[in-house]
Amino acid sequence: MNILAELKNRFRDVLAEVSGETDVQNLLDMIKPAQDARFGDYQANCAMPLGKRLGKAPREVAEEILNKVRLDDLCSQTDIAGPGFINLTIDDQWITSQVNTAGNESRLGVAANANPQTFILDYSSPNVAKPMHVGHIRSTVIGDSLARTLRFLGHQVIADNHLGDWGTQFGMIIYGYKHFVDAEAYQQHEVRELSRLYRLVNQLIDYWKSKGGVAAQQEEIARRESIVAELESVEPSGDKKEDKKQRKALGRARDQLTQARQSLDSLNAKIQTVESDEVLHQQAQAHPDIARSALLETAQLHEGDATNRQLWEEFLPKCREDIQRVYARLSVEFDVEYGESFYHEMLPGVVSGLQEAGLASESEGAQCVFLDAFETPMIVQKSDGAFLYATTDLATIEYRMQQWQADEILYVVDHRQSEHFQKLFAVANAWNAPQVQMHHISFGTVLDESGRPYKTRSGDAVGLEGLLDEAVNKAYEVVSANDDSKPNGSELSEETRRHIADVVGHGAIKYADLSHNRTSDYVFSYDKMMALEGNTATYMQYSYARVQSIFRKGDVDLDGLRQSDSAILLGHAAERALAMMILRYSEALEQVVEDYRPNQLTNYLFDLAKRFSSFFEQCPVLKSEDEAIKQSRLKLCDLTGRVIAHGLDLLGIGVVDQM
RNA sequence: GCGCCCAUAGCUCAGCUGGAUAGAGCAACGGACUUCUAAUCCGUAGGUCGCAGGUUCGAAUCCUGCUGGGCGUGCCA
């Protein structure tokens, strides 16, 4: 049962009658959970604007609404407060009956959607053969959580990992393999060697790019220096405003000069790294044209060159297998994994199709689609004949529509690509997919402590697996320390400790990411990602474990408890608050799906677990002297545990019985 | 230059899309383990919601301008 939905149903006709309007959705949206427990459980704020519209006193309107709406079974108290707030307190009887109903079903009181839609979720989508880093985690865990939630709400979901398995990085690896491969290392561990080759080629390309960029950067610095000198030479005019402006301009110019110098330093550092290493330096000297050559390898692969094709076919399965290991650790699964290469042969058809539809035309040698809303075109074929990711994306949409007749396609990709997706959606809607709804589920960048996109000192991003390992190790330390210090001696076997550390460690990393509003950037820190106290997955897992502990200690027959018709009693405020929270699970999931924000679910679960902690402190379960109260509390514990486990599962996070 | 996004407690972030006295976690300080798990709980302290206007019964939330920052901006993905 969704209480909010039920309240809106009760109010709908009455609001139509009182307002004289047919569409009362905007008024219904003003019914919401109370901000403060003193105001009851829910509040309807529609009397104020309605009073204005009807030229009546808002409190009078509120009274009229309350007189007409039928709430006697649902609310024990209704008040009009302040300027015209309608405060609603849900009836305890009603709560207990709903909680009992929810407890008797596996869906925990959450109804499946009456109009299921077909969703395609495009998430994770890493480039294979590059090690996954912290930047990949957001798309992966947000996408996975949305897929799970939509599925639970009754929709059909196709989770598609649109792997980058056809791009420039393969040209780099092929080039590296042809010139630098260590045969023995390759034989021992193919992917590790391929990944080394990728990094090596990347480094050499960077080296030459840096070499080429030094002169331009020096010029830039000289230019900035002269700007600063010019601003410094200006005498104060005496006019306060003018002088302030002047000082600001000078400050800015100095900042820019500093930045330019830093850029030069970073170029020199890259050059220095290579030149200080004799082997690297020789390799660099032997391959001055490496950037162009690597691109050429990619082009040859795409054109069907036998050698490159063969190498690609040898590398790809191994890379995919390797990446699968990370997904297994994260419990992330996909229904399909059609990489970019899958669409390769459809690309010429995309361009010709766009031409025939009068959408694409030649410009500066490239095939472009010009859109009114954008300054720059969407390029679908380069002047050298190669296709781009926009082309692949259009082919992908085409395929998805034919294969699954999708109602909605969600792209979980970081916000820097928002313009690309705007263009893509505009072209697809105008061309081959007029009906489908497409959404860019964008998310912010992972930043370091100084607010810049996260990189290590060497310029590489932090490896994802290393991060997961550290989190699990940290969790293991905490598990062991806690277990060792138990008053009656330790309870957990080594194997159990490892298992708990695994679930808790991975949960912490995922939760740290999912609990942020996805649209904002967030600052990455090891300590924060691995925190096991406060608003973390650990807190929920701990609550769950406490529930299981009660059942163990009390030797509770769970099936019997769930089937018994003993009533839920809400004599204590903490019991009532907990029961209310359990009933609001459905609302939380609706909020997740409304804007595709899993942090609505983490917020809810944290609230629920807090209510449980408070209940746990104040309401003894096994020790309650009244058998009816004991049964009631056991039921509340059971439901809390089930909702927590279920909610965490929708976030892709597990639970353990002991910790 | 143009476009998009952001600015909330010392730090990291929520804030249900306009509601009542702006909330958490961390850090700090003070309490609670012979008690169903202290990975916990209770309490104290901490805010001019970047600045200035506007819209209205009511603004952290909507609009305009400004400041500061991030990102994108024709052949990378």
How many DSSP E strands?
A: 13
Roughly what fraction of the amino acids lie in strands? 5-15%
Mean pLDDT: 90
Question: How are strands sequenced across the largest beta sheet?
Answer: 1-2-4-3
- Estimate the helix proportion, in percent: 55-70%
- Major sheet description: 4 strands, antiparallel
CATH architecture of the domain at 118-166 and 307-447: 3-Layer(aba) Sandwich
Rounded to the nearest angstrom, the radius of gyration is 30 Å
Tally of DSSP helical segments: 25
Large-scale geometry: globular
CATH fold assignment of the domain at 118-166 and 307-447: Rossmann fold
**Alpha-beta content class:** alpha/beta
CATH superfamily of the domain at 118-166 and 307-447: HUPs
Low-confidence stretches: none
Question: What is the CATH top level name of the domain at 118-166 and 307-447?
Answer: Alpha Beta
Describe this structure as you would to a colleague.
- The protein has 659 residues and is an alpha/beta fold.
- Among the domains are: 3-90, Arginyl tRNA synthetase N-terminal domain (Gyrase A, domain 2, 2-Layer Sandwich), CATH 3.30.1360; 118-166 and 307-447, Rossmann fold (3-Layer(aba) Sandwich); 169-305.
- It has helices spanning 3-19, 25-28, 47-54, 58-68, 92-103, 135-152, 168-180, 183-188, 190-232, 240-275, 278-286, 290-303, 306-330, 347-356, 389-404, 418-430, 464-484, 494-514, 526-529, 537-554, 558-563, 573-583, 585-595, 599-618, 627-650, and strands at 31-33, 42-44, 75-81, 85-90, 118-122, 156-160, 360-363, 366-369, 378-381, 408-414, 437-443, 446-447, 522-523.
- Helix 3 (47-54) crosses helix 4, helix 17 packs across helix 18 (494-514) and helix 22 (573-583) runs antiparallel to helix 24.
- The mean pLDDT is 90.
- The protein binds one RNA strand of 77 nucleotides through helix 3, strand 9, helix 16, helix 17 and strand 13.
